[in-house]
Amino acid sequence: MLLTQLAYFEALARERHFGRAAASCYVTTSTLSEAVRKLEAEVGTPLVNRSRSSFQGLTPEGELVLGYARRITADQRHLEEDLAAARGQLVTVLRVGVVPAGSGWAAEVLARLRRRHPGVRFDIRSGVRSEEIIEDLRSHQLDAGIIHTAPGGVRGLHVTALGTVRFSVVGTGHAFQREFGQVPSRITGSELSRLPVALLSPRMLAREEFDRAVQDSGVTVTPVVDADSVGSLLSCAATGQWFSVVPEGDGQGDGLCRVPLVDPEVRLGTAVARLDTRPVPGIATAVDLAAEETGDAVASDPCSHPPVG
Questions:
Q1: What confidence score (pLDDT) does residue 199 get?
Q2: Of 307, 288, 287, 284, which is closest to residue 297 (Cα–Cα)?
């Protein structure tokens, strides 16, 4: 069993198409297909469901092999990275998942990491749920993530706290004038319940925390719009028809008015997460240090750091 066979098989599972998988590995389709067939012969069972050579999904055995393949190829990549670092420079592509409220945190952490390791590049997946990021970390499809944290931490992950995100209500000045006669200094949950509101989707942890907070305060807020990204919520608010509840500071400079949400005040913890592995790869150590520096900067002077946006 060769590492290249596992790498080609992992690419096929990711791309779900022989041609695209081959292109991503810079080989011909026939080369990749033959490597996968040799892997199947070695393990003694079909791994891929085919129809006239087209990809039709993995067999149950293929799903089992995929988990091992991802771990093995991740270890190979980390070994190559650490050997390069031992020669004087850490060079890699860091795959990062970011929750909707975490774009500013991600920018700060990655900027700190890049200053120390200029050979590192980044592949960012934004607007992803914490649960999806955690799943992709465990399956080695991401290297790090900006997630919302829950009490007790997350099993199998190394988590470095960054700070908290407070939510505010955004809308156009005209919309606030229409509803309040002016742009208010704050908005309560009771006032919010009477407005046409856009919120993050119910499947997101940030929305779950918002719902819990308003329910605990005895308020019911029924949104007109559910969206899976902060960008979509800001676009809704920009029409003047809706008021969006978003992380404070996200989308700075977009011309919208921001009003703090109080009674209840909704806050979420935010952290950098990675797999808790031994030995710790060099890139993971670099991520930890950048996250710790960011968290320390916020703790020492929170007003100096824009946590989001």
A1: 95
A2: 307
Say which residues have a Cβ less than 8 Å from residue 154's Cβ, sequence separation at least 6: 134, 147, 273
pLDDT computed for residue 230 by the predictor: 84
Is the separation of the CB atoms in 184 and 176 below 8 Å?
Answer: yes
CA-wise closest residue to 272 among 305, 295, 247, 254: 295
CA distances from 237 to 102, 185, 226, 231, 251 (A): 20, 18, 12, 10, 12
Q: How would you classify residue 255: left for phi > 0, otherwise alpha for psi between -120 and 50, otherwise beta?
A: left
Q: Classify residue 271 by its DSSP letter.
A: E
Looking at residue 150, its pLDDT comes to: 63
Q: 220-230 burial string, b = 16+ CB within 10 Å, else e?
A: ebebebebbbb
Regarding pTM above 0.70, the answer is yes
Ranges under pLDDT 70 in the chain: 53, 150-153, 249-254, 299-309
Q: Bin 267: left if φ > 0, else alpha if -120 < ψ < 50, else beta.
A: beta
For the chain, list the domains and their CATH numbers: 3-81 (1.10.10.10), 94-163+274-304 (3.40.190.10), 165-268 (3.40.190.290)
Phi and psi based region of residue 53 (left: phi greater than 0; alpha: psi -120 to 50; beta: remaining): left
Q: What is the DSSP string of 61-116?
A: HHHHHHHHHHHHHHHHHHHHHHHHHHTT---EEEEEEE-GGGHHHHHHHHHHHHHH
Q: Given this model, what pLDDT does residue 308 score?
A: 43
